């Protein structure tokens, strides 16, 4: 337009109002459609989805449950491979009359195993638009389902460690399956990094005396909420196979262009409840990976490879994630502790900010942590981070570097358990229901740096709440935002934030905020998702003509069931809800955000 994009982030759309509608709501002038949802065909021989006649065999060929991370690998202008994580199954919504894992049929438990993992699907653009559709005919040679039963391998320094050995895998090299893959990232060589998050919930009978079991909140008995995977695969019973739980909680690398490839659990990146893994290059060309551990009072991590990324030298690049240093973040505030009083009021220097350092934990076979071997640091990374005095954060979710400004942004989703005595300048709000967003500026804007400056540009919530902060922007103009989860950037460097768990009595959604210029802090809501859903993805495509979101767990409301669904999205009528990936685009082909 004639006003240009200067200082405006190019964002001119009319924000969507908070609502509780059972719909995907987008701004005026935009269109949306569902790309692929639970039960849709992934493998060419997948049967048609039938809610009342499900089988594990069918599910292992169909799109899994609870889509989360979404990324696209272009194959020309109008075709792409899409990778999607399937974080977890919700049997109460998947099966009629489900009362828990103890009473479930073995087939239901096997469907649950097959509903996890991820999918590779071919998608194609509706020519001349930002709309993308699932390819449903032809060979689809790359299409693939990865599940909780897919053979994988370990790579990196902890491979073959005694801590990873089991009766079925005496060498500690070949884990089976991945679980609770939440968000993720991609590598410069065109593979997916997918993050195993809340893997603890799948196990029963963990040791009651092993502090490492407690540190990862692994169940020590059999609870009524367990899916009871142990009933069909004994390895999930830790009384019989205590090390099996150590084989989950990793970053998994998957090559979408090689459907026969074995997924790789990269041990050099540590084991915790991984939210995501986003990569960038250091000033000298090495690979840096930013990662969060999404639990209350957990930490933020960075891995930096020893060697440089060499464009086109694939064999070399695929070793980078095995050799490097794993760091954990420590944040130090620059205001007196007395000024961080928990009221949400800014300290006298008018900013929650300070300096920080990346503390090394382990590099190859060298441990930097007293009393722990390198393998122990990698397998029990939380324990190592405790020992070096890292900063306990308000649930670190997604973390990603802004390709334009080079700042690194972290979504800290919430932490209702933080007490007034536990606030610090990086986590300044007690009973933090709505979360905040942290900005890290590494020294010389170098992802290889070990020191940084940081600040909090966004303290989420109702803008009328004095304990919120929108980077000093006029709070009468911003959208309310609560529980930031995933972050992404468009090519202009605007920060896109999706939410999970909106505590403002409205549905979750997708928001955008410029991080520089006069509109820094101007949060606007771009879409809302249906009842009970969280917003995942998100992905603004490189050409900025499409924005993808994963609509996870529509209808997941207390007491909901197939007999009384809380959502009928996306199929409408009296249908059961289906977690699905949707795409939105400007109806006249303008840039997303116009
Ligand atoms: Fe699976 Fe931390 O969201
Ligand atoms: Ca300060
Ligand atoms: Ca998430
Ligand atoms: Ca989440």
From TrEMBL:
InterPro entries: PhoX (IPR008557), TAT_signal (IPR006311)
The species this protein was found in: Nonomuraea dietziae
Pfam families the UniProt entry points to: PhoX
Protein name per the record: Phosphatase
Region (Disordered): 555-594
SUPFAM superfamilies reported in the protein's UniProt record: Calcium-dependent phosphotriesterase
């Amino acid at each position: 337009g004639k006003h240009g994009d200067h200082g405006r982030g190019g964002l001119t759309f009319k924000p969507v109002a908070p609502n509780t509608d059972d719909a995907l709501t987008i701004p005026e002038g935009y269109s949306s459609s569902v790309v692929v949802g639970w039960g849709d065909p992934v493998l060419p021989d997948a049967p048609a989805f039938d809610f009342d006649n499900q089988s594990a065999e069918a599910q292992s060929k169909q799109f899994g449950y609870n889509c989360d991370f979404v990324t696209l690998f272009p194959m020309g202008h109008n075709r792409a491979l899409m990778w999607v994580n399937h974080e977890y199954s919700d049997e109460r919504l998947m099966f009629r009359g489900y009362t828990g894992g103890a009473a479930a049929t073995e087939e239901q438990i096997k469907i649950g195993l097959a509903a996890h993992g991820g999918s590779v699907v071919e998608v194609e653009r509706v020519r001349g638009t930002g709309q993308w559709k699932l390819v449903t005919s032809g060979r689809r040679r790359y299409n693939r389902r990865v599940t909780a039963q897919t053979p994988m391998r370990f790579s990196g320094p902890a491979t073959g460690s005694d801590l990873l050995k089991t009766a079925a895998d005496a060498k500690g090299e070949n884990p089976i399956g991945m679980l609770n893959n939440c968000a993720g990232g991609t590598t410069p060589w065109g593979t997916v990094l997918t993050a195993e998050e809340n893997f603890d919930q799948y196990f029963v009978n963990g040791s009651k005396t092993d502090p490492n079991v407690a540190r990862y909140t692994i169940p020590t008995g059999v609870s009524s909420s367990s899916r009871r995977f142990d009933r069909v695969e004994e390895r999930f019973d830790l009384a019989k196979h205590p090390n099996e739980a150590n084989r989950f909680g990793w970053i998994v690398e998957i090559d979408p262009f090689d459907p026969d490839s074995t997924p790789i659990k990269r041990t050099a990146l540590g084991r915790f409840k991984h939210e995501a893994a986003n990569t960038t290059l250091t000033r000298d060309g090495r690979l840096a990976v930013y990662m969060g551990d999404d639990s209350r009072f957990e930490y933020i991590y960075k891995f930096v490879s020893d060697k440089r990324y060499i464009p086109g030298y694939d064999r070399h690049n695929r070793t980078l994630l095995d050799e490097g240093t794993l760091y954990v973040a420590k944040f130090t505030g620059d205001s007196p502790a007395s000024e961080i009083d928990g009221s949400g009021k800014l300290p006298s220097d008018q900013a929650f900010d300070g300096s920080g350092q990346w503390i090394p934990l382990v590099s190859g076979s060298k441990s930097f942590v007293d009393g722990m071997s390198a393998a122990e640091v990698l397998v029990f990374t939380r324990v190592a981070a405790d020992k070096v005095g890292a900063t306990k954060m308000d649930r670190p979710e997604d973390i990603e570097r802004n390709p334009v400004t080079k700042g690194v942004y972290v979504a800290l989703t919430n932490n209702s358990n933080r007490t007034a005595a536990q606030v610090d300048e990086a986590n300044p709000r007690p009973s933090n229901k709505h979360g905040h967003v942290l900005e890290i500026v590494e020294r010389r804007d170098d992802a290889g740096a070990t020191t940084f400056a940081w600040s909090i540009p966004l303290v989420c919530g109702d803008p009328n709440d004095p304990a919120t902060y929108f980077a000093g922007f006029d709070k009468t103009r911003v959208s309310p935002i609560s529980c930031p989860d995933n972050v992404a950037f468009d090519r202009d460097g605007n920060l896109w934030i999706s939410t999970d768990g909106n505590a403002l009595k409205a549905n979750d959604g997708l928001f955008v905020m410029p991080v520089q210029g006069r509109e820094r802090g101007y949060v606007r809501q771009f879409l809302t998702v249906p009842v009970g859903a969280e917003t995942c993805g998100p992905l603004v495509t490189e050409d900025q003509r499409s924005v993808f979101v994963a609509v996870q767990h529509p209808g997941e409301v207390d007491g909901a069931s197939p007999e009384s669904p809380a959502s009928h999205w996306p199929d409408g009528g009296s249908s059961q809800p289906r977690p699905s990936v949707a795409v939105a685009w400007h109806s006249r082909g303008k840039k997303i955000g116009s």
